[in-house]
Structures are given as C-alpha cells and as structure tokens.
Amino acid sequence: MITLSRRYHFSASHRLHSPVLSAAENARIYGKCNNPFGHGHDYTLEVTVAGEPDPESGLIVPLPLLDRFIANDILRLFANRNINLDVPEFRTLVPTTENVALVIAGLLEEGWRSYFNDSRARLVRLHIQETDRNGFELVLGKREVLDVSRLLQEGVTANV
Q1: b/e for 26-38, b at 16 or more Cβ within 10 A?
Q2: pTM (2 decimals)?
C-alpha cells in the first residue's frame, strides 16, 4: 500500500468563545484568541490517502479529482471566511482547530464516495497546521464519521 499526501492552503478567521463560560473563564482559557473581533490564520491542510496504484494510470487517485474534491467540499466553506459566522457547523460549536479538524474530517468522509466511488483508495489521515507551533492530526478510517449533533450534546459548544 502507498500513501499520497497533498497540501492545501487557506486563510480564515475565528473567535474562540463559549457562551457557557463566563467572560473571565473565556479570557483565561482562550487568551488573545477570545478577542471579540476575532483573529485569522493561514492554515495548511494536509490530506493523506492510501491505496494501490491503478494498473492503467499508476495513480492512487487522480490529483485533479482530489483537488476538485477539496476545493468544492472544504475550501469553498473555509477559505477567506469567518468560521464562526460562515461555516454552518460552527454556529454552535467553538471553532478551535481541533474542532475544525473534526468537521473537515467528517466532510471528507461524507463526500469521499461521490468523488472516488470506483477507487479502492481511502482517506487515512488529516493534518491541519494553524501556526508554526500548533498542528492537529486525525487518523481516519478508524473512527465514526463526525456527528456534530453528538458533539453539541456533549457540551462542546459555541462561538459569538
């Protein structure tokens, strides 16, 4: 089995704030990331797929198809957006990069078959780099598709 990792870049803003916490608790937990006006990052998203190369093309997946998938299903939602306001999943979910990674993973897993139904390739890893010091990684395929409603019920709530 061979893996392919592809990187994508996008800029987005967010504010880390939970309405279930006091102003003092939000300031203590999120620090400068709790700024009422938000702040932005230049994110790097790395998606890794694994599989055997197709005998005719020699590819695990066609790169233009993978790029179209990421552009349509992920970048369209996140690039140059205020994550709190523009990405529906974050209207009630704190947009920590941990949660951004979980939501992106869920979107990738939901859309995979519509792009790669004929392929034996599968998603195996997602890495999102927020800053030089903060990167977050999920191993895919060994977890359930993200259920945002479950996260909300468990109290991992919200922005504004």
Answers
A1: beeebeebbeeeb
A2: 0.87
